[in-house]
What we know:
A: alpha/beta, 9 helices, disordered C terminus, B: alpha/beta, 5-stranded antiparallel β-sheet
Amino acid sequence: MPTHDHYVIIGNGPAGNAAAFTLREADPDAAITILSHENICFYSKPKLVKYLAGKVDEDALAVRTMDAYRKKHIRLRLGQTVVHIDTDSRSLHLDHMEKVHYTYLIIASGARARLLPSMKPYADCLTFVTEFNDTRGLRQKIANGSRFFIFGGDLVAFKFVKILTDMGKQVTLLLYPRAFWPHRLTPEMEDTIVKNLAPTGADILADDDLADIVPEGDGYGVTTKQGVRTQADLVFSFNGLIPEVDFARGSGLDIDHGILVDETMRTGLDHVFACGACAQIYNPDINTYTTSIGWPNARVQGEVAAQNLLGEHRKVRPAGRKYFDLQGVKIKTAWWEDVESD
Amino acid sequence: MKKNGLYAKEEKIFQDKNKLYQAHSVKQIAYSTDPRDFGQVARSIPCQEACPAKTNIPGYIRCINEKRYGRAYELNRGANIMPGVLGRICSRPCETACRHGAPDNGVSVGICHLKRACADLKSPMHRIIEGLYTPSGKGVAVVGSGPAGLAAAHDLAILGHRAVIFESLEKPGGMLMYGIPEFRLPRDLLMTEINNILRLGVELKTAQAVGTHITLETLSQEFDAVVVAAGCTKPRVLGVDGENLENVYNGLAFMKAVNAGKTPHVGNTVAVIGAGFTAVDCARSAIRLGAQQVAMHIRKTMDDMRIDETEKHEARFEGIGVESLVQPAEILGKNGRVTGIRFVRTRIEKTGAPPYKKSVPIAGSEFVVPCDSVIAALGQSPDVPDVSDALTGIEKDRHTTAMKGVFAAGDFVTGSTDVISAIAGGRRTALAVDLYLTDIKRKKTVVRLESHTTTDRPRSYDFIDRVPMNTIAMEQRLADHTNEVETGFEPDQALAESQRCYLCNLKYEIDPLRCIYCSACIDVAPKDCIKMVETIPVTADGTYGRYVETGQWDRVVSITIDNDVCIRCGQCYDVCPMDCISVTKTELIQMDMDE
């Protein structure tokens, strides 16, 4: 591989970091750049809810410091948002009008919070917790607030309910049966979840839906379709994640939910790879396509993408089906590795 | 405001074009047939170029901005005949091309919603404008009253010919009436715009199927010319076992039944096969028929779906799922009724010809989806023998056939496309018929150039968010399947959305003889739109090619504004100390040949 190659990686999560450091191991001379729209070094997303609750500080989130990148001569550019990929000229357009040229590209842009279509009119009233950028200013609001409304029902939602109630906050949880998508909770599953969350002291609403959210004073008034009306300092939405791929649309890459890749993490373009939560890959063990595959798998995918970029032909191996514990409900899923947050 | 040098500067522009007209004391208007001007319009106004009917989009959006809704409506009618209809159901190729949706520029302008706004907000006193030619004494039969047939009949009537439409069904409108659900296109609105065509003297004969009740040969003898615009009526089939089971519908037949007020049995779980507008219409109609779970199944990816983002959002909002990268292998049944579909997963493979990719089944990936009904909305193709076995030799570009005096238009010629393409095809065919009947070429396309003394928009407009369309709640949607989902813009919403348009029809130019190369314009430009060039090549078709830029001062022959990149913010115009930047309004217009 020529030494003047410029490997650019979009995303500074587990997949992007694994890719960058794998590339450096094999190619000591190449220019390697990581572009991240966030303003923080590689950090642990699973710990964000604890950070919000004031249980850990910002330093405790760090997985890798700036020094580690310097030592490996990996250029880490934080706060740089890619808005478009021009695959013909092999350049990335950043939102401040800069163009960054690459010879090979690894997309590891991760996922963002899913906004339900029915919630689009209320988007300005909702608070999402997907990344560190989302949490700026939130920590103080949570510390000062007393009442919170949580809409959804994914893993983070339940974790957050427990943390907030432990802090003595009043919490209302409206269960959305499709939050842990693509699985749909049955009424029996919802009953189990309600029962298991009861000890937290949170008000749990099931078999209901949001009807309206309006700003009221410093907070919000929330009304459900069953007529429940409550006030909250913040309304959180936890309805799963979707791949962060909008910037790649129109670039010639095949995009479904995520960027389509084969088991070698190659996209339809020979100089572009994708890995981690932004990639969509067929899993023959369970005969379906998957995205949002969890931290350990993202790391493996990042390594495989980097190795194949350098000329190898490694394949990621499906982990097969696993059973996932969602507040007492066993959900059969695939390629999911739970990451303990402490 | 610009001053002093303006007159001399624009004098030069228009003298160069050798066609100078004095409109009034300030404005000057020129009409150009220079290929360079056509090339400039095509590249600089991408929305209009993308529109098959070449609608003057920046022109009508500017009228909405000035609250001249009636004028905006007429600018639309002049190109696309039915603005109220298209403002609801157009496939919006213009929005895909809109420069506001380009990388770094945000989201495209809601052009279609604005089209609807001018139809909704125009005064009840509004009068339609038609420039009628004297009667020719010729008669033309038009087969089919879909968009292409209506457009052809409209233009033939304008051109002075007696147009008689033969429609096989009971109501006019073709796919507009029978294929599109009422919750997307209210029938009173459709009939109003159809009647605007019929009132020109167009005669409509319904329940007259050519090929059944009357032959094409008879029409050919009784009329001076015939336009066949029979659309696409032959449904594509899945070609899998089980397709003849009960509760397996083809998309068009299903929509026809729903639009006729019938309630086809769909059961609780519905599998729709297809990725286009008809497939979405079927899925949304199934929800209104009481289905609890409806999913669309598509062979390629979500991005490959042939529908716009608004439709995708509305489908998701109504709870319709999309299963991508699958294709049906067999429809399963019991006692003659559908019980499920066996699918196979697919992957995408590159090909050497358009559309450059295909879906390929993955071996061993079969799975079964239980369902109560299947709607196969795979599109339709023209049924030529149904009209006449003698109808051969259809020339797509010239709209002619091997039968003398018989022309063909719209989807019947091109295969299944969209409404705006069908209308454009119908209009082109009318001109071809007119030339055949009169041997007179009536129209010419020219570029109208008008000096403009303002930029019409401040930079702050670039940061206005796209205005979402107002819609009714889910409960209202389910209460009555005819309730229109989208309710249109209020005037203030239309104003805000109109302000987002860059007005790409305004062409910015630097007079290199007056420019002092101070770089002030470059300093304020938000885009890389002001360029030092050493060559502006002229291509084989006579239009300008891409600028050849240079960074070496000794090679610079001109400083120029790249109107392909320019977002018409006007900052260069405001800052220039030499007033050497001019603004010219450019429009593609149709003129009579003798003007």
